[in-house]
Amino acid sequence: MSLRQQILKTLSISALSLCCFAGFADAKQVEVHDPVMTKEGDTYYVFSTGPGITYYQSKDLVNWQLSGRVFKDEPSWAQRVAPGFGGHLWAPDIIQKDGLFYLYYSVSAFGKNTSGIGVTVNKTLDPAAKDYRWVDQGIVVQSVPQRDDWNAIDPAIIKDENNDYWMSFGSFWAGLKLVKLDSTLTRIAEPQEWHTIAARPRNAKSTIEGERNGAIEAPYIFHKNDYYYLFVSFDKCCRAANSDYNVRVGRATKVTGPYLDKDGNDMAQGAGSVVIKGNKDWPGLGHNAAYSFDGKDYLVLHAYEAADKGIQKLRILPMSWQDGWPLVNPSDLNSHITQLK
Question: Are 14 and 20 in contact (CB under 8 A)?
Answer without folding.
Answer: no
